[in-house]
Amino acid sequence: MARVPFHYVDLRAFSYETEDEARVEAALRTFLPEEFEVERAESRGHHGDRIVVRSARVERADDVRHVLAQVAAAPDYDRIFDELDDRITDNCELFLRFDKQAAFRGEVSLGSGITFRAKVEAYPAKREAALENARDALDAVRDETEHGRD
């Protein structure tokens, strides 16, 4: 895939007081290229409990391609692809949620715990154009992944 029609991909996971912060970061890293910087921000919950937010913004084309390859390798890829129409907003953003526990084990699976938000390139900036670009990109990265060219 020569061109990646995404401006960026944001990944985010919360580490609650009962969770091991390092494990949550490891889960997030399942999607990221090696040595990629993960940001850390502390917050407080409604009852004063500590919440650590781990996040990464992926902007370079090769890095975005890497993240998309992880998504394309997911066992529920067909479901993701089939639901694209419901997952792209009028602001040309693609939203997915992945299972944090599965990601900690190195697996990519739809679920809860990790939020994936990607800004899809579309000119003009219309949902339909973003949907077509996202479909083409995910199809292309899936083909590359299946043929071992990741």
TrEMBL record:
Q: Which InterPro entries match?
A: PAB1135-like (IPR002739), Ribosomal_uL5_dom_sf (IPR022803)
Matching Pfam families = RNA_binding (PF01877)
Its domain of life? Archaea
Q: Which Gene3D superfamilies match?
A: 3.30.1440.10
The family database entries (NCBIfam families) matched by this protein are listed as:
PRK14555.1-1
Supply the name of the protein.
RNA-binding protein
Give the organism the record lists.
Salinigranum rubrum
Q: What lineage, starting at the top, does this entry show? A: Archaea, Methanobacteriati, Methanobacteriota, Stenosarchaea group, Halobacteria
